[in-house]
Design a protein that fits this description.
4 helices; 2 domains; 115 residues; mainly alpha; single chain
Amino acid sequence: MEFGLALMALAIAVAVILAACAISASVRVVSKPLVREPFLSGMTPSEHAVSRYHVRWYTVAVLFLAFDMEMVFMYPWVLVVGRMGAGAVVEMFTFLAVLFAAVVYAWREGAFRWS
């Protein structure tokens, strides 16, 4: 019975999950709240909440991730730049140059136009 405790933990986990599913199934509301009730600050919805997004928003998301990753990499760089010396400064400005080139490319392609 080497796996007795592991099997007992697995059985408890499955029981908890099944109990949570049973409780949620017993207390749920069986209506379509997205169709009848307003959302977005009380305004009447003009489309379903799970509708597709325009492809323009994917470009915006990628640009946001590019700038977000810039900050993620700059914070630890600031902490160790004093110990690493000039090599770290060159690497960071190379990274920023690549990001700047991506922004210039996105600008040229019209990613920042909202028409």
